[in-house]
Amino acid sequence: QMDFEEFLSEPSAKRRFFLLIVPLSSMLNSMKRPFPPHLLLLYLCLLLLFSAFVPAQQPAVPSAVQPAITKPSPSPVPVANPDAESTIPRPFVPRSEESQAPPPEPIATAPMIIALPETVPVTSRKFQFRVGYLRADENSMGMDSFKKALETNEAFAKAASAVGIIAISLRPCDSASDMLVRLQQEEFDLAFCPAQVYAEVKILQARTNDKMCYQAVFQQGKPSRGVFFARKGVVQANVADKKALSADLKKLIKPSTLATTDAFNAAGYLYVRRALYDDFNRAEPKAYLFLENSRDVIKTVLSGLCDFGACEETALQEKEKELVQILGTAKPIPASPVLIHEQYAPNGMRAIIGAAASDAAKSFFKNTLTAPDEAAFTAFVNELQHTTSKP
Length: 391
What we know:
Elements: H1 4-9, H2 12-30, H3 37-52, E1 127-134, H4 143-152, H5 154-163, E2 165-173, H6 176-184, E3 190-192, H7 195-207, E4 214-220, E5 226-231, H8 242-253, E6 257-260, H9 266-279, E7 287-290, H10 294-302, E8 308-312, H11 318-321, E9 324-329, E10 336-341, H12 351-365, E11 369-370, H13 374-389
Parallel strand pairs: 1-2, 1-3, 6-7, 6-8
Antiparallel strand pairs: 3-10, 4-10, 4-11, 5-8, 5-9
């Protein structure tokens, strides 16, 4: 018999022998009849297999060579408890050589990166000056040249460098509805947009009591109005006879498709549709074919794909007027505005950028930019609300 401490101090082989013999002898003593030989053999095999996986216990480390505990060197990183002892042991050195061994070098620790609050001045932030425009607009072809004119403008370059503008970003819009959504998200700093898009932004923000974040600094071009026309020979009635024309037109247009521009173009679609309803005895086509611009509308009608079309009057060339029959005109709408974000407006925090960009735009577009007519825009917004409220 051995006590537990003596058993643990025995070598590995002797402990494995006891693991095999002691349980087996106890079991055989408790049995009343002889143990079957084949079961005994199976039991011994299982115990041998089990004992092969029992790890040998390592001898205890003498207390004389226990690793010493040292304090770490002062660290620049603040810790929760600076008086706490370090748990990092030093390398093991034999006692005979301990007095001659050099002291361990302090452990290098990486400095902690602490996120500071955003108190960085505006001049250290880098961002882009974003210019929005309609991709299909006739003025969009000159946007690359306008970007170069801004980049080479000395006043704009100096002001841009002072506030952290590193680039000019051109951001074309695929349609007027796309521009409307992006204006509501304040994606542009400078925007060349149609009059109806600007009016729609004003209407939506008036409904939600939001502040208008854009200001019109220029108007580009001249006021425009829409025309309703047909390919020559389609309508036989005299245009001067409104009664006969209305009766004839109502029968002809009802089964036809009307080619027109984007639904956000008041001159080429909304006002023309209103004129058809009011002036031609509520005439309404079977369907509408929406195209990118007025030039596509004219080409579609002249090619015979549609008998009727509606577009901006200025898009019709003199030779094309001889091939179509103009049936009516709509009310004029204001010229397209050039918008600037409120932070670049005269009273904005970056007014110096807005002033430099406005001067560069006037120099580049020359006589095509005029001062905004806010009264005309207000009347247009009211008319647009009145028109869209009707069937």
